[in-house]
Amino acid sequence: MLPPIAILGAGSMGGAIVHGLAGSGLATGLTVTNRTVGKATALRELAGVRSIALKEQPSGNRDAAAAADVVLVGVKPVMVPDLLHEIADALRPGTTVVSIAAGVPIATFERILPAGTPVVRSMPNTPALVGKAVTGLASGSAVSDAQAAVVRALFETVGVVIEVPEAQIDALSTISGSGPAYVFLLVEELTKAAVGKGFEAAAARTMAEQTFIGAAALLAASGEDPAELRRRVTSPKGTTERAVAVLQDAHLDDVFARATDAALARAKELAAGA
C-alpha cells in the first residue's frame, strides 16, 4: 500500500494520475486540489479520493500537503514557485515532494522548500489516462532509496517507469512526453491520405487508428525489434517496399531529430523562465 498522497493541481496530467491511483487500490489516502468547484466535483466520484476546490477552501493546498507523506505538484510551471512558498511550512519532516511540472528543475524546489526536503522530478505522459504511461523519474540528493521506491510504485499505477539523471529529463520529455502528439499527428495524416483515396471519413479513421493500435500491440507482444517487424511486412519489390522508400527519402530520421531538438530547446526556455 502507498502512504497518504496529495496532488496539488489535478489538471489533465494530475487527473490521470488520480484515476490511476484510485483504480489501483494501493492509495490509502488520496487528497487532490483544483481551483474550480466543477473540476473538484468530478473527482469526488472516485472511490477513496478527497477532492478540494480552492474556491471553497482557500487553505486546501496547505491542508492537503500537511496530511500527506508524498506531495505531487501538478500546477502550471509558472505557478510552481508561488505554490511551493504557500506549502513550505506546512510540510511534515520527511515528506517527499514530486514535480510533474515541465521545465522546473529540482534546484527550484530545493531552494524554496525546507532544507533536506526530498524532491523527485517526474515526466509522465498522457497515456497515463489508460494506464499506459511512460514516466521518467529523477531524484534529488535528499531522496532515500525507500522514498524513491514509493514514488516509483506510485507512477507504476499508470504505466512504466524509467529512472534517469535529472540532466536527461528534458530530453526524455521530447521523446515520451511529447511523443503521443507525434503519434496522433501520424494517425491524423494517414487518415487524410485514406480520405484522399476515396474512403469515407469514418472508415479512414478506423483504418488509420486500428493500424497503429494493432502494430503497437504486435510490437509489445512479440518482443521483436521494430526494424525486424518492419522488414517482415516489407516484401521485396512489393507495395510496402515502395511506400517505405518514399518515407525514407523524406529523411524521417532528420525530421524527428529536428523536432525533438526543437522541443528540447523549448524545455530549456521554460526552465529559464521564458
From TrEMBL:
It is found in: Cytoplasm. Residues 166-270 form the Pyrroline-5-carboxylate reductase dimerisation domain. Its EC number is 1.5.1.2. Pfam families: F420_oxidored, P5CR_dimer. It is an enzyme of class 1 (oxidoreductase). Pathway: Amino-acid biosynthesis; L-proline biosynthesis; L-proline from L-glutamate 5-semialdehyde: step 1/1. Residues 5-103 form the Pyrroline-5-carboxylate reductase catalytic N-terminal domain. Keywords: Amino-acid biosynthesis, Cytoplasm, NADP, Oxidoreductase, Proline biosynthesis. InterPro entries: 6-PGluconate_DH-like_C_sf, NAD(P)-bd_dom_sf, P5C_Rdtase_cat_N, P5CR-like_CS, P5CR_dimer, Pyrroline-COOH_reductase. It catalyses: L-proline + NAD(+) = (S)-1-pyrroline-5-carboxylate + NADH + 2 H(+); L-proline + NADP(+) = (S)-1-pyrroline-5-carboxylate + NADPH + 2 H(+). Catalyzes the reduction of 1-pyrroline-5-carboxylate (PCA) to L-proline. Belongs to the pyrroline-5-carboxylate reductase family. This is Pyrroline-5-carboxylate reductase. It comes from Microbacterium kribbense.
